[in-house]
Amino acid sequence: MTVPSPISRRLALSAAVTCLGLCATLLGAGGAEAAANCIKGDRKAPYTVGWANIYSVPTWMKQTEGTITAEVEALKKDGRVKDLMVTDAQGNAQTQIQQIQSMIDANVDAIVVIAGSSTALDRVISDACDKGIAVVNFDSLVDTDKVTAKINTDSNEWGSKAAQWMVDQLGGKGKIIIMNGPAGVSVSDDRRKGAQPVLDANKGLEVITETNTEYNVAPAQEAMTSLLFANPEIDGVLSLGGALSAGALLAFDRQGREPVPTTGENARQFLELWKEKGINGWATMQPNWLGALAVYTAVQALDGKPVPAFVKVPLPVIDDSTIDTYLARASEFPADGYIYSAYDKALFDKLLAQ
């Protein structure tokens, strides 16, 4: 019998260790998928889901909550969800922190959240993740990556496309007003950041002023009314969301001024005014069903299925060639609501397969 030398034994041992590591890796790849971020502990269906809303007054938020509750009801029928806990921070980030902490204390299985601040919620969101709670953040995002998933459209792309449309409409020259959502809300700030490179590249487009308002018609109309008094010459309104565009058009109309090219999103009132006044318009949307997708994503993660850390939802374009298809469904939505696109499980599965 030949006795292996010490060198041979060391080589054989090293090969065995390497093989064990590689085999484990291959088994892991071919067997159970790695758990999504934050998912740990013994959590079993049916799950309790928390919906940490920053504020519920705007119609966009009410419609979004409607998609969340509808998704929860569907998942209840499938035996995947037991309860939905809903909170409303009424626009106060500190209140939202306390409400998320109450969800953590109640040991909910998942928290879906629109952040009232991109930074203030980081600590409590991270704490939820550390405790094995699925955290899905959509629309207005937190800075921390200690979440199961973030879901959003590309807000920078939104601003860039809106600004480029305005450049094309005005031939690169003219005076414009920019209408933003609330300062400090990530989607609003990111849209504005996305527009800036286009504005920088087209110096003939002069931004005479800009404003920040809530995503509601009344404050937007009031803000635009003041700006119209102060600025007799306006060639375009670069509105970056919500009912801001409808408020702008109403202000023009009530002052007897001709409307100008205006950007916006899928607010029903804006689309109807666009058609009624025959303006040059462009819009996209932040689909309300992002809320339903957030719930679906959280449950998928809790079920042990892989979900991407970031789910990018493509931006649709609403222009003269597509506006009629949206208005054809207007009666299905509130008069002050948003005409959002259809969604189903197949769409959600496609988005999660990115």
UniProtKB/TrEMBL annotation:
Coiled coil: none annotated. Its main location: other. GO terms for molecular function: carbohydrate binding. The keyword Signal applies. Keywords: Signal. It is found in: Cell envelope. Residues 54-305 form the Periplasmic binding protein domain. The keyword Phosphoprotein does not apply. It holds the Pfam family Peripla_BP_4. Residues 1-34 form the signal peptide. GO terms for cellular component: cell envelope. Belongs to the bacterial solute-binding protein 2 family. This is ABC transporter substrate-binding protein. It comes from Aureimonas ureilytica. The lineage of its organism: Bacteria, Pseudomonadati, Pseudomonadota, Alphaproteobacteria, Hyphomicrobiales.
